[in-house]
Every structure is written in structure tokens, then in C-alpha cells.
Amino acid sequence: MSSMSASGSSGTFCLQDCDVIGFDLDHTLCRYDLKETSRLIYDSFARYLVEHKGYDKDLLNLTPAAWDFCFKGLVVDLEEGNLVKLAEDGTVLRATHGTRDLSQEEIIKHYGPKREWKHFNSLNSTFTRSAKYYFYDNYFDLPGALLCARVVDVLNKRGCEVTPDFWKDMVAAIDHNYNTSAFREDSGWYFPRVKRDPGRFLQPCSASVCRWLRGLKENGKILLLITSSHSDYCRLVCDHILGKDFEDLFDVIITNALKPGFFSLIPQQRPFRTLVNDVEDSEGLPGLEKPGWYSQGNWPHLHDLLKKMTGRVEPRVVYFGDSMRSDMFPAFSFGKWETVMIVEEMEGEGVARANPAPSQPAEKKSTFEGIREAAEEMLERPEDYLPPWSPAQFSARWNEIYGNNLGLLAMFCLLYPHRAGALDMAREYMERMAAQPNWLVRDAPWDEVPMAHSLVGFATAYDFLFVYLSHSQQERFLQVIGNASRYMYEKSYHRGWGFQYLHNHQPTNCVALLTGCLVLMNQGYLQDAYLWTKQVLSIMEKSLVLLQDVVDGSLYEGVAYGSYTTRSLFQYIFLVQRHFSISHFQHPWLLQHFSFLYRTLLPGFQRTVAIADSNYNWFYGPESQLVFLDRYVLRNGSGNWLAEKIRENRVQDGPGQPARGQRWSTLHTEFIWFDPSLRPVPPPDYGIPRLHYFEDWGVVTYGSALPSQRNHSFLSFKSGKLGGRAIFDIVHLKKYSEWIRGWRNFNAGHEHPDQNSFTFTPGGVPFITEALYGPKYTFLNNALMFRPSGHHSCFAPWEGQVTETCNSKWLKFKQGQAADCQGNMEAALEQQGLVFIRGEARSAYSQELKARSIQRNLLLLQPELLLVVDHVHLQPDSPVRRFSAFFHNTDMPFQPTAMENIQGAFIQHSQDSYKMFWLDDTGSSEKAVTGYWSYPHGYPYNGSNYVNVTMPLRYPHTRVAYIFFGPEVEVQSFSLRGDSERIDVYLATHDHTYTVHVLTGEAPSKPLFAMVLEDQKKKIVFERAAAIQERPLVEVEEYVNAVEDNLQHVKPVFQQLEHHIQAKVLDSGKFQKTDKRKPVASVKKTFSLSKKQKAKGGKKEGLADGPSDIFAQIEVREKQQKQTVMKRGGYEDVPEENDGDSRAFIDYSDTRTVRKGAVIKGRRFNEVQAVATVGVSHSSSSAYIRLFLILNILTFFLLLAVLLLRLPKSQTLHTQRCVYCLLLVDSFILLCLYSSCSQSQC
User: Fold this and answer.
1) CA 43/CA 928 separation, integer angstroms
2) Measuring CA to CA, how many Å separate 624 from each of 659, 664, 1143?
3) CA proximity to 542, closest of 747, 740, 743
4) Residue from 32, 319, 429, 773 carrying the catalytic annotation
């Protein structure tokens, strides 16, 4: 707080000496959640401009960094379109044009050499509004400063002149949201949102504040409340922060005071008015006669009333407020009051509160707020988020968003059960999903992933909201879960996700089935739930056994798809521990997985190394996965810390922002798993660049998870085995032979032909990047291609790596040379701040190239200086004559440049240039081709910028060196030469010289990989003795029994439930009436077998009496079913099973119209039950219907021809009647067949 006394000095005062104590309301007595309120105010103004004035919709999008623009004291110079920050004498300290900072030269150009703002005297001496400027000094309109700046940006972008006219639109936006009737009429956007959820924006006063106010009044102090807010809004705020009896705390309440005019205007200009039902009387009062609640008014009449109330000629008044212009100066200057200013910013500068209230941990609170923000957005625009009623619309696109959002909404309803409209929306959400014949995508009926997302969300919501559902909803929704679970179970015997291990589809679909099983189990459907649960565990436990061989904690599909996998995998681990006491928390892969998330983060915590099909960072989470790891595995605070850092730095707009379908789907699990007792603590080496080798993945990273600073750079390099070392060796060494039959048990479709590819991020700016989720072409990676091709290739005569695919979205990996594709990481070393990496990729290319070595060496000499050396050694009869190197940047285009005779390219990032140059060992440097490769339709990204360097090949050796550097490095000279055994590179920068000797391995006896001589003084050696040694794969002992042991945990749980339910059925005839959660008919059917077994007195050895027999019979039936499936040919191998994946990460613009008609809404799931369980399958019955339909159509046309051609010649009436009768019968059959075929989707 800052105080000003009536004598004009700033200092202290004593409340005891004051007769009257006055308070402003907003941001004084009432504290707001500034983050929430600022965003609401900005959105309210911006939406008016967009929807009513036709401004660019881009105004609605904001990044977190944009809020740094807002601070009190900004002045909008409407004549120049600038925002200025003034010194106390009117000097312009800083200025921006729009959001662009003006240089000192530009400020002088606008405001003269002395940088004087000509309207300063007017601003400093009057309180009236001006058409030439606007002063932002309070939080209620401060977000408007940011909006003004962005409007200027938009006008400049369009080439429009910036005039004061745009301010008229801003004033209209303010008036639309804040006018005195807006609260009553529920107009605008601000008041409706606050009315709907005041707790989101307003912070209640503590009980001590209320006691303090009452104590002041009891001690004879007169209390005032003077606010510019209208009476209805004031009433809402005070009810929330002070309680329903807040009027008892104040002697005089003045609303709509319109400060500073309240203090500066004379009574005739602004008289007091009385209020009736929050409506002002049209007639002003001649003066104030008694305490009470008034509107508008003026200081002189209030002063007269205070003199009467205190009995003093000059009552001493102190006034608390938050605005220098509206509260402090006018109250001090005109009223001669003591003033105390509430400065919330002081808390942000480290000034602690006297008695801080206990609060939730930061991460828990942020997750809590994230759930609330997401749900409030859904409630504000329900038709944008509710599933469509129409099955055609529901299945028209990749629809995982509906299941993903439902779990979040259900969690919100648990946390805020009294939030108006939330439960109604959740119930309607479930009704709409239950109305669908199935949850598949029409164009991808072979892919159960969309159904899995819907089933997980629906079953989770059913479990969370069971007590809030009607009995009818409980029964119908349970049927939906049962039918969807049955369908998933049946498909687990046929689809790839039932046998392709460690692929993202497998845990996604299995967890969906498991979630459905747990709900059914809890409702008494024990037979089906037991059978289906066993199937899930038999699949997933095998995956977890195989994961034990992935010793580095990685996932071969990359970080993005890895987050897709772990989103469900961690749920599985959590659920089987919770329900069946199967613990995997000390799984060796799980113990290492934190490194996979931590060591792949680029500086700034916003992007990850985008190896394989990827977005800029993660598809799901990873905050949820990180808090899971911390709570159940690490127990050291590092997971909570990294989750917090990622959340703080999340990209909210533009590249890297979470996709609309995935952004909220892990918030509820993050909330459940977070352990507040684990204080966020960074790893011990945080802040220090480290080299990390993922030995299974075949990837090296350096400089991960650092703050974004100039000297913090990131480097990655990949040269490993297809599918990762563990999978590759399992396939080729024929390990786990009881389960694995080669590549058909794995799916490397999301990998890229990217052996020896690298990325480089100097100073935190992505310079050389991966090309994200795109076609599987070698040249879309930072890798080499060769010419001419020895056989057919996608881009003949050029040939890439053997796994690239010409006519599919998925990598080729199952057959031929592709099945043996691998790179080899030979070295990853760090010495004295320098990093050396070497990879060999010969086995990733066709044998017909006849190359002895395709080697790439990386040397990071400085944080922003990278040397790359390619070494190609050909056999004498090799047909190739040229090779082509590609380098990519997904965001910024390459432009050609040159340094003397050395060709190069660069990208421009802000004001900085990031450059690369190249030459070969003959001193030649050919010009490159730069351009942009557009991806075909169906990929989530448009394409990639590239630079293509093509050089001739010579027998036996060709060496090409490339240097990449950022703006902190100035390269002065660069040369290269080599002989049969080594390559020598000479490099001089503005501050160092480097002589680099790279030994290519042609002479194995040499003990070195490379040596660097820095400034002719410092020698750094990378020794061959430190070469990477690959560990052999060790098959898990008794792996079959390990899975069986875990499966044995399931039966006792079901047996215990059987005893529990049976006791209820047998002991109480009122079970059906009292326990509506148990479907009694099904329970009785379930136990009919058990009773028969007891009657026979049979007992199987090793099993408990009675009830256990039913599960033994289920297991027998399960084995018989599996044998039948295998006899029929086993699993289906659907070649394009992943085809929908890329569409899952496209943010569709939701242009559908949701139909509210009662025809579909009133449907009951039991009417479509057969369709949901059987009809979605392209079964043999559908094929027969099609056949009969075709034959019947032919019969119909044949009869029609007879009717038209032959019948007129017939003389018998009997013949005519027969033909007409046959035609009528055939028409009826045709109609029935058409109806059956339509419902079966045949």
C-alpha cells in the first residue's frame, strides 16, 4: 500500500484518527483473478470488434507472452497510433507502434529531440476524456491497451492508415460490455460470464477482513463504499466477497459514481439519485439527508452529509483505492482526503502478504484451473463441443475429440457439482453419444481407435457421474458400454492391435476395453467382464515383458507418438495396480522413461526432437505422464517440476499449440495422479548441457531441457535399427518365439527413412529440423540420396533409403531389404565442451549401390557452430555417380548466399541470420536448390522448406563438409582436404581458429575418431576406445510364466465380487428394489451355473468351492474361441490400418450444424443394439444380403420387362393378375433387403 496525506506528503497515517473510512470496490476490497479477468475483458472487447465491426478474427488469438505488453500507466496516442510510457515530466520513455517497439530514432521522429509528449499538461491537469489520447490506469480497461496495439498491427498489415477513427470502435466495444443496462439485460460478454461463475473471477475476502470492517463500525467509524460499478454488479460482487449481509457493513454505498467526475464536478452537473430495484430515479436529489444506497452523485453533497453524521466541521476521511487517476488524485485534490493506494503489482515484485492464506500446490492449482477453463469454454459454446445427433455427421471425420473431452467434462462436474448447466451438458453429451449406431469413422471402418477414445470417455463419465444419471440413463448407457466393449473384444482377435506390440494403437484400444470391463464388473456383468479383462491383460502384459528389453526408456515411434502410447499405457498400469494388485511401478523401462521426455526437449520447453511421425512436441500430455512418473516411480519431484515448466511455457497459439482434439484429454488423469507432497525439484544437472545416448532408439541428444538463451543450443542425431534395437533383435534373433512371428508382430509404419539424420537448434532457434508428419521419403529427412538408382525407386534415377514408400503413408518395413534396415551409432563423445558424433548408414541403403561406407560425422565446436562431414566410400563397381544432401526447416524458408567461392544458404529469424556453407575435399562448392515441398492432402502439415546440396561422387572416397552457425558466430574462412585415411578441416571465426582431423576408420588400427586443435594451443581428442559398445539382447526368463502369473491376479477379484453379489441376491428379496446398480436378471443367470455345480457337489482340485467353477468354464470357452479363430486364419493383416492416424491430428474447422430434432434424440440404445455389436462388422451376413439384393433387383427388372412387353399381348386376365402379384411381392422383398442392407452398412 502507498499512502498520501492531506498535507501533500507521502507517509503513514493512523486509522484511529480518522472519522470516515472509504473504500473503492474493484481491485480494492474485491481482488480479482487477474489472469482470468484480463483474458475475459480482452475477449469481450475483441469479440465485439470481430463480430460487430468486421475486424480480423486473428484478434481473438493470444499467446501468453502477449500479456507482458500490459502494465498500468500506458497512454494511447490516438493521433500517432502509438502507445507510450511517460516519465513524471512528460518525457516519452518508451513507445510502440502497435506491438512493435519503436527505436530511439523513431521516438525522436515522432516526438522531437526532447521526446516531449505535447498532451502531457492536459493529461496531468484535467480529468476529462480526450479525443486525442486515452490513459490506462486500472485493470478494468487495461487489456484494451493490448487490443489497441493489435488493432494497429492489423491496420498496418492491411496497408490501412492508422487514424483516431479506430478508437470509436474501441469505445463502442467498451460501452457494449460495460454500459449500465448490460448486467440487467445480460448483454455483451463480460457480465454474463461473471454472473455465471463469479468464483472463477472474484476472490472472496477472508473472514478477518469482514471482522475488521465490523470492528471499525462498532468503534464508531463511518464506512463508505464508493464505486463506479453499477448497483446490480456491485451487489453480485459484494454478495460473493463479503456475504449476503454486506450492506450492514457500510453506512453509505455509492454506485455508478463515475470517478473521477464524482470528486471534480459540481452538484448541479451530477446530483445523487435514488435506486428502485437497481434502476436510477430520473430526478436528481437536491442533497443527501441520510445514510443509504445512492447512485452517481458528487463530493460536496457527500461532504455535507458526513459533517452531519460526524458532528465535525471538517471530518477526517481516508479513502482506499487502486487507481491513481480515478481514486488517489481527485480524492486528495478536491476532497482533501487521506488516500491509500492498493498496488497489487508489489506482490509480483516479491513483497509478501502479511498472512498468506494456505493454498493448493502450484501444479495442482494449475491443473484445477485448466479443468475449469476447459469446461467453462465448453459450457460457453456447447454446440461447438457437443457431439452431433446425426450418425452421418458423427462418423464423417476422425471423431476422437468427443471421447477425449467427455472425461474432462465429467471430472469438472465432480469438482463443481453445483455449476449451473454442467451436469445437464454432460448428460446431453452422453445421450448424443448413446444415440449413435457406432463410434467408428465411416471412411475407416477397420480402425477401432476412434471407438476406443469414445469408449474410454463414455465409460469414465458413466463411472464419475453414475449417481447423477436417471435410472433409465444408467441402464441405457450401460448397454452402450457393454456393446462397444463386446465389439472391441471381438476385434482384438482379428485386428493388428491384438498382436502388434508396443504400437500406439494397442494400449489405446486395450485400455478402452479394460475401462468398459471395469464398469461392467462393477455393475455385475461378471462373465463378460472377466473374459474381456483376461484378453486385455494377456495382450498388455506381453507388451510390458517386451518393454523390459527397451533399456533406455524410449519408444521407437518417437516422442509425439510415444505420448500417445503412454497416455493409455500409464492408465493401464494404474488400473491394474488399483483393481488387481499387479504392480509395474518398478518396471525397468518405466524407471528410464523420464529421460525420454527430459532429454528430448529443446531449449525453452516448447518443442521436442521431432523424430518419426510427429508434431512439434507431443500429441498427448506430457504433464499427466510426468506427474504419474513422479508419484509412482521417481518420487523425487523431477516429474512435477518438468510438468510445471512445460505448462508454464506452453505454446497457446501457432506452431506447437495443442491440437483441439487432444488438448484437454489428460487433464483429469493429471489431476488424479498429482502428488502435492512432492515439491518440484529439477534434476541435479539442470542448466548444464549434457550428451545423452538412447542406445535402443539409436538417437543422441545434446543440450536438452535448458532455458531459452543465446548460448543454449540443441543437437540431435539418429542412426539406429529399424523399430529400435530391442524390436529389431527380437525379430532377427527370433526371440520370444512363443509370441513373435517376425515383423508381423510389430508396426514401424510411423518411422521415417532417417538414418544419419540430425537436427540443430543454435541459441534455441530451430535451424535444421525434421519435417514432421509427412510422406516417408528420404529427402524429407536430413539425409542423403544417390544417383543413378540400381532398381526401381520412388524418384528414379535418385534412390533413397530402402524403407521409403512410394504409394503408402506408412514406412516399408516387413519384407526384403527394408526388413533389415539399420544405422549404426559408432561414437557419441563429449570432451572439454566439444561434442563428436558418428553414424554409419550403409545398411539403410540398397546393396545395389555397392557402398562400403556412408558415414556422417558431427562436431559441435561452439554452442552455435556445428561442423558436419559426410564420408562416402564406394566399391570399384558401384554404379552411383552423384549424391544429394537435404536439410529442412519446417517454418522458415532457405535463401541462397555465398562466402567468396563457397556456396551457402541461410534462414532469417527476426533480425538474425542462421547460415550454412559447404564444400568437398577438392575445394568444389556447387550451388544448392532451395524450395518448399508440399505434402499431399491428408497429412496434418502442409510441407517443409529445404535446401538441396548435390555433389559428384568419386571413387573410392568422397568427402563433403558443411558448417552451420548462428548469429553469435562470424566465420572468416573455411577449407577442406583429405587423403585415404582422414579428413582435415580448417575453420576460422572472429574469435577462434580450428584445425579438425577426422579419421574415417579406413585404418582400424588408428586409436582416434577425431582430434581438434583450437587456436593452435588446445588439443581435444576423441578416442576410439570410447566407441559405443552395443549390449546383446537378453530374453526375459520364463516370460510366458511371468504373464500367466499376473493373469492369476484377476480371478480372485471376480470371485470376491461373485460372493458379494450372490450374498445380496440370496439374502434379500428386495435386492432389485434397493440396489438398482445391479442388473438382477443377469446376476441370476450368472449364478445359475454356480448353483448347479454346488448341487452336484463337484469340486475341482486347486480351486475354491462353487463360485470359482464358473470362471474355470469361462476360461475353457475362451481357449476354444481362440482355437477357432486360429483355425479360421487368425488375425487380419489390414495393410492400411493406420490410415486414420494422420487425420487425428488435423484441427478441423467445425462447420457442422447440430440438429436438435427429437426424432434421433429420443432413440434408445436397445433399438440399435444389434447394429452396435454386429452390424458394424463387414460380416458374411452383409455379403449375403448384398448378393440377394442384386439378384432381386435383376428379378424386378425382368418382371417389369415382361409386364411392358409381353403382358399387353396376353388375353387371359389370370395371367395378368399373376404377373402383377409377383411384381408386388418382389417389390416388397426388394424394400426389405434394401432396409436390411442400409442398417448393416453393407
Assistant:
1) 47
2) 16, 11, 24
3) 740
4) 773
688, 603 Cβ separation under 8 angstroms = no
pLDDT value, residue 352: 39
1060 is catalytic: no
d(CA 669, CA 624): 6
Q: Of 195-209, 627-641, 1057-1071, which has the strongest mean pLDDT?
A: 627-641
Measured CA to CA, the distance from residue 569 to residue 552 in angstroms comes to: 17
544 contacts 587 by C-beta, under 8 angstroms = yes
Which residue type occupies 354? A
* Strand extents, DSSP E, 429-584: none
Contact 1003, 994 (CB under 8 A): no
- Can you give the pLDDT at residue 1206? 63
Given a contact cutoff of 8 angstroms between Cβ atoms, the answer to whether 488 and 1173 are in contact is: no
Position 165 scores a pLDDT of 77
Q: What is the mean pLDDT of residues 462-485?
A: 95
Strand order, beta sheet including 714-718? 691-694, 699-702, 714-718, 757-761
Residue 540: CB atoms within 10 Å? 25
Identified catalytic residue from 32, 178, 525, 561: 561
pLDDT band at 1076 (very low <50, low <70, confident <90, very high): very low
Average pLDDT estimate for 219-230: 94
* Whole-number Cα distances in Å, 1179 to 396, 1176, 1230: 22, 8, 21
The confidence score (pLDDT) of residue 534 equals 95
The Cα 786–Cα 872 span in angstroms is: 11
Starting at the earlier edge strand, list the strands of the sheet with 92-97: 100-101, 92-97, 82-86, 74-77, 133-136
Signed CA dihedral, 495, 496, 501, 503: sign only: negative
* Distance in angstroms between the alpha carbons of the first and the last residue of the chain: 74
H-only helix segments in 1153-1203: 1158-1161, 1169-1170, 1180-1201
- Alpha-carbon gap, residue 1224 to 1180, rounded angstroms: 28
Q: CA–CA separation, 1156 vs 390, rounded Å? A: 9
Work out the average pLDDT over 1225-1230: 75
The tens digit of pLDDT for each residue in 388-412 reads 999 999 999 889 999 999 999 999 9
Task: Give one DSSP letter per residue of 748-816, joined into a string.
Answer: -TT--S-TTEEEEEGGG---B----S----GGGSS-EEEES-SS--TBTTBB--TT--SS-SS---SSG
Which residue's entry shows cell 504419474? 628
Q: Cell 475354491, residue? A: 1104
Burial (Cβ within 10 Å: 0-12, 13-18, ≥19) of residue 1035: middle
The answer to whether 561 is a known catalytic residue is: yes
Q: Round to whole Å and give the CA distance between 504 and 497.
A: 9
505 is catalytic: yes
Element housing 976 (H / E): strand 971-978
Is residue 773 within 8 A of residue 767, CB to CB? The reply is: no
Q: Read off the pLDDT of residues 561-591 as tens digits, 9 standing for 90 and up.
A: 999 999 999 999 999 999 999 999 999 999 9
Is residue 1237 very low, low, confident or very high in pLDDT (cuts 50, 70, 90)?
low
**Catalytic, out of 27, 176, 505, 668:** 505
Q: Residue 715: in which H helix or E strand, if any?
A: strand 714-718
Mean pLDDT to the nearest integer, 1002-1022: 90
- Only one residue has cell 558418428, namely 838
Identity at 733, one-letter amino acid code: L
Please tell me what DSSP assigns to residue 141: T
Which tens digit of pLDDT belongs to each residue from 433-466? 999 999 999 999 999 999 999 999 999 999 999 9
State mean pLDDT over 597-609.
Answer: 95
* CB 509 within 8 Å of CB 448: yes
Average pLDDT over the chain, rounded to whole? 85
Please choose, from the candidates 201, 84, 188, 81, the residue with its C-alpha nearest in 3D space to the C-alpha of residue 139: 201
